[in-house]
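Why run this: before we spend reagent on co-expression, it is cheaper to look at a predicted model of the complex and decide which construct boundaries make sense. The entries below are exactly what would go into the expression plan.
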Amino acid sequence: MKEENFSEWYNDVIERAGLSDKRYPVKGMNVWRPYGWKLMLNIDRIIREECNKRNFDEVCFPLLIPEEQFKKEKEHIKGFDEQVYWVTKAGENLLDVPLLLRPTSETAMYPMFALWVRSHSDLPLRTYQIVNTFRYETKQTRPFVRVREIHFFEAHTCHTDFEDAEHQIKEYYEILKNVAEKLCLPYILTKRPDWDKFAGAFYSVGIDTIMPSGKTLQIGSIHQYRENFSKAYDIKYEDEKGGHNFVHQTTYGMSERLVGAVIGVHGDEKGLVLPPGIAPVQIVIVPIFKKENEKTVKDECEKVKKMLKDFRVELDCRELTPGSKYYDWELKGVPLRIEIGPRDVKKQCAVFVRRDNGEKFEVKMEKIVEEAGKTLKNIEADLLKKAEKLLKSRLKKFEKLEEAKNFDGIVKTGWCGKENCGLDTEEKLDMKTLGAPVEKEKFKGKCASCGKDTDVVVYMARTY
Amino acid sequence: MKEENFSEWYNDVIERAGLSDKRYPVKGMNVWRPYGWKLMLNIDRIIREECNKRNFDEVCFPLLIPEEQFKKEKEHIKGFDEQVYWVTKAGENLLDVPLLLRPTSETAMYPMFALWVRSHSDLPLRTYQIVNTFRYETKQTRPFVRVREIHFFEAHTCHTDFEDAEHQIKEYYEILKNVAEKLCLPYILTKRPDWDKFAGAFYSVGIDTIMPSGKTLQIGSIHQYRENFSKAYDIKYEDEKGGHNFVHQTTYGMSERLVGAVIGVHGDEKGLVLPPGIAPVQIVIVPIFKKENEKTVKDECEKVKKMLKDFRVELDCRELTPGSKYYDWELKGVPLRIEIGPRDVKKQCAVFVRRDNGEKFEVKMEKIVEEAGKTLKNIEADLLKKAEKLLKSRLKKFEKLEEAKNFDGIVKTGWCGKENCGLDTEEKLDMKTLGAPVEKEKFKGKCASCGKDTDVVVYMARTY
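The model came back. Tokens follow.
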């Protein structure tokens, strides 16, 4: 079903694995069920670790933004005006100043940054927060991928100059690399075309991965703002010579779409396949017994559970057949299953079963901790490899647009750099421009629209 | 200053220690600065641990609640109607259904609970979430204590019957005990009088601590709902005999007021005094050197920092005098300071200084890890003892109201049980009724209002 009807499979697996409940009476605002929320918190933890070890400061800004603050940066409002929720009333009173629910926090943070930044010694200022944000989506909603309340990570930094801000962006790439590795997600970085950059940005880098449907999913973005916002919000610092300058700013955002990508990229017919680094349960132990040896087997399982205390382990002693337990835990994507039966107790071993490829093998009791660690590492590496293969197979250079049109994936093609030509190609392919790859690629070809010689390649795709 | 003007001291220390910034342009909505947010996250972590080890499920529900859902339980609306923020517009469109920002999540969760609970085997259902909630406060706001966006922990449970729900409430007391111990906060539990119980509750237990001003601060509450909400939201289960019954429900809430209590109860003239269990920095190492021995001393400090890797340690190598460093870290309430100078290096020892009582003593290098752990434990125990002493000194039985009137603390007095008499006493004392202590106290006396003999004692106090 995943192959034939990805959308249906995706919704079905989210419901059956207990990740999210979309029956909440506001469309596009879903309930994080315990298993889904654990998964999200594990991803948050990894993001936090990456930021904290680089001495980012975690903060938490108010959700509500006064209209006046919001309207200071003109491009920014244009980009979001249609999408914001407005609080206009409290109790029975109309509010003097309408407040909006943050779609993102530039306009909440930057008036405060103007107070916090005084001198060059306050820079770089590097903060992040993980909060709920809101966008009034008019397109069809989809759990984790297009929702109206979004679980959102956003880093915001201020720097003395453009170069230092550029260094920050390089560091974002490192954070992204480490996070994506734990999620076993390959991705491509492209500089978005001007007509699709973030509202108020000098340039925007999109972080895209590919779903099995061949459509790309943007899982994050990185923006260079230059002085666009600091001028609007008057964020200035005094330099060593006593001069006053506007700071240069950057942001980096990722959202619950990371969960959507993990589900879509790794899942299979049996359900979720979760990367060990974020799986709420990394190992499930299933005892297999008849009445006469129930105690022996369960005791052994308890012993193994204790041995594996450094992992997230579940021992499943429910009164169900082993088969139904396998079914459940496969649906939930637990990376490693350990089966222990009476014969295993006697032989002092256990049977390992990998969720990702179904591989089954015997492990001696004294090797069980070491092998569990090794197996989880192997699963992580193999999941990433498989996903990379998918991405590679869906990324193809085309010379003729006619042939590209029916390709379910990312089309590489030439672009002369003119907006007209870009939009024309988008229309002809019924695709969006992801942009030119951040890591420059050698290219010689012709603009797909006007035919002019060009050394610029762009990536185009159908997107979620 | 703490003694003479507690309010001023409180606001000042919050600002100077970098906990919160109240210059955000919406009154009562403050910015969590990095140090304050770390403190809050440490408290959240402890709450999570306590809930998770008891197999509560963490969830995350949407912030916005449709008007219709909100209005199902009549008492509940009455209690909150004046206090809710309304989202009425999105982009340029008026919403068909106005949405409110949760002041608490009963009305968001219970329509879903009605879908989740089917049979007795689904019970007990025990969930919690840690989220932002909103109340349009009309009283004067105060950081952490009375704010309009509130960082909030809320547990919600469903049970087969009243007894099982009562057991749940006993378990809440255990969670509270463990959390409060880490915060070194003593508290009293009282059953709130009917006119002050939570909107929709069968009964409410208030969790109050006392601030040095003599006013009590409610740091949480526990509610028995019985079937009040399940009837309104149609949350039913099928029992073993095939009968259909409404579930019994409880809730337990605590908020960022915990931070307010920690600041107020433990702080002193020099600033914050943080309990080791929640301090963002538990130990600060300050090197003391002259130019000629700078490297030796700093190397030693690095060594000690590594030895103390299981604690949250900061090594302060800023180019400042030791004195200004002491000042900073005392302001920030770091429980233990370790000073290391050239003489200490030679003698292979270090000087420990306790934040709570200023005690100073030498520790041999080989004992440093052990002693650090012991000292932090002692600080924790002593902070709690000191706070308990404060609470005890501020809790007094009065026979004559005239004498009670000027008491800055909790007044114990008799009550016949009639609402009129309770309200009359409140007025005469200019205090609020906290309620009768949950742990029954032997009492023989007269109702403070009507003079009738009674064995019921109530606690009254001025409250934040």
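The longest helix of chain B spans residues 368-393. The first strand of chain B starts at residue 20 and ends at 21. Bring this page to Monday's planning discussion.
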